[in-house]
Amino acid sequence: MPDILSIGECMIELFSEEPIEEADTFTRSLAGDSFNILVAAQRLGTSTGYVTRLGDDPFAGYLLQTWEGEGIDTSHVRTVEGFNAVHFVALLPGGDREFVYYRKGSAPSTIEPDDLDSDYIGGARIQHLSGITQAISSTARETVLKAAQIAKEKGIAVSYDPNYRHQLWSHEEARSAMEEVIPYVDYFLPNAPADSQMLLGTDDPHEVVAHFTELGVPIVAVTRGEDGAVVGVRDRVFEIPAYRPDGPIDTTAAGDAFNGGFLHGILNGMAIQNAARLGSVTAGLKLRGRGALTGMPYSDEVFSIYESLG
Length: 310
Fold this sequence. Notes:
The protein is an alpha/beta fold. The chain has a single domain (4-308), classed as UDP-N-acetylmuramoyl-L-alanine:D-glutamate ligase (3-Layer(aba) Sandwich). Helix content is 37%, strand content 21%. It has a nine-stranded mixed β-sheet with strand order 5-4-1-8-9-10-11-12-13, with helices on both faces. A four-stranded mixed β-sheet has the order 3-2-6-7.
């Protein structure tokens, strides 16, 4: 059984080096936060599995072959009639990005609680959940909540990234969805400022850590881009510096890379502070590549740099 399971939607990614309105050429890849975290963890050596629906359009073979090529278990991917979502992404000055999504009504968004296998979840060590998955449809939101409940019943840890996207829903809807699952969450993985503003109206990661640890979340790790991360566990808070080998090329999936590295470290017995440092190195190396997959690093390089940093 895979150690980390993730539920969500993987999209076709069409990437441009220029602003979307000026671009003539787009490069095909694929991305989605629920998928990116699996790639990050899998490339470090953690076994992973994906729970999703796959549309039967011409992109289906490319998606499935890529997932399996990464070593991700696809035994719980269900192929259904429909299309796979697409998003366009382009670079802006400084490495930030702009997105345009075409995903409403996609095959993955029709996922429902009956797609979950409680034995499959019970065989994992971490069930990862995402606010984006909650946002893509009402049945997807129900599926995320049911997965959290099954995981808790089975004694499986739950990680959750709220990953707020204003294109998908309002602050109020996102907060409501987060409140549904937070009682089941062991590893809460928001970012600042986007998630922290949505959740609490603050840019201060320490306020986020304090708020959610007081609610009973055992571990809170707030990523904040070039400022690193703030991680809270019980009554201890750690400041984790960002690893930035050179200027960033593309920040796409850097947060997912951190989360994948962090969870990999936890599963391999690292102290929370060291697991977060591993996540920081993984995220920093990811900045070198275009799109979600290109720069996602492998184990040898990540651990070589991690160890060199002491």
